[in-house]
Amino acid sequence: MTTGQARRLSYQRARNDNGIILKLLKSLLIVVDEGPQGFPTEEAVAELQSLCLTAGIPVGGVETLKVREPNATTYFGKGKVVEIAGRIKEKGFTRVVLNLDFSGIQQRNLKESWGVEILDRTSLILQIFSKHAHSAAGKLQVELARENYRLSRMTGRGILLSRLGGGIGTRGPGEMKLEEERRRAREHIQRLETRISGLEEQRQKLRDLRKGRGVPEIALVGYTNAGKSALLNTLCRKKATPVADKLFTTLDTTTRRIYFGERKIAVATDTVGFLHNLSHTLVAAFHATLEGISAAQLILVVLDGSSGMISEHYRTTIAVLNQVSAGNLPRLVVINKLDLLTAEQKERLGRKFPEAVFASGLTGEGLTDLKNGLAARIWMN
Ligand SMILES: Nc1nc2c(ncn2[C@@H]2O[C@H](COP(=O)(O)OP(=O)(O)OP(=O)(O)O)[C@@H](O)[C@H]2O)c(=O)[nH]1
Ligand SMILES: [Mg+2]
Question: Is the domain defined by 3-119 classed in CATH 3.40.50.11060?
């Protein structure tokens, strides 16, 4: 065999192996039906698929389940756990991804019963966050979220480790080791929080400087993928922040100038997007960034006009604004992705959000209306 043939053969083998590996790595998505009062199941499935796509996780199947009363040790009932184990074996899934969070014990038991890796909602989002954080503050916040998540999972393992350790009434070596691990994690968390608040203080100083110079700040907020970064880029006519059809593209805060003519200047800040049911761990880690929103003079709520979930997105956004004490600030709602809307859709949305302006971050349509709306709220109040 010539060297060229050998190389081609090994290349062919590698391609085949990759194919097999990809097939082997297929994940089963499990979405829990929240009932008529909860988040619509179809949307939850689409959202989990989007999160997997963003995280680079190939999806092999989707299962939706109703859970009347979560089981304390396995979350799902015994029968369901066995049924899913059968499906995993039959289809050869190597991972299960769920749209909810478990306790450490539930996760460990399910992993044992199903024999595959289990990714809950927070760890899936954490994977995406790790990929998308670039700035020092962004990376620290992701590390903080990871460490908080790890600390919250240590309880379950404690019981196991203690059982391996001493008898009744004694603290076995397992438990002591766990206490030590917990203490270290808490110290690490404290160090991270100190560093993050140091960075936030720097931001605050910059903010105070701008305030002193009379430069107003606009905070862009909204659901992930609504088009906040695209709108900011169009507003400041620069490619300031990355835009992608993925969830949580922006984790790093970007502040840019917007010129309104007649020497009027404001700055706009683009930051992490929102998602419903974000776990406390994730919200807590981004608290410093989100708190920064409350320092703005005006909130620009960006909604994706083309989404069927616009009302839910609006509600989530307002809930987060209230959480970070920015619920009382003046705000303007912009319905983005105008280029995708039919005249009827636009009319319907106009009735639903009578105060909103329409714009497109992609084509620049409606930009004058948006700028006029912003200027009116900033300088005429
Ligand atoms: N058709 C259309 N697509 C848009 C518009 N604005 C944004 N997009 C697309 O929507 C997707 C998300 O846009 P981003 O600007 O990254 O959204 P974001 O709100 O910053 O998202 P995160 O950073 O993930 O929170 C991208 O694929 C954009 O190209 C618009 O006005 N029209
Ligand atoms: Mg963005």
Answer: yes
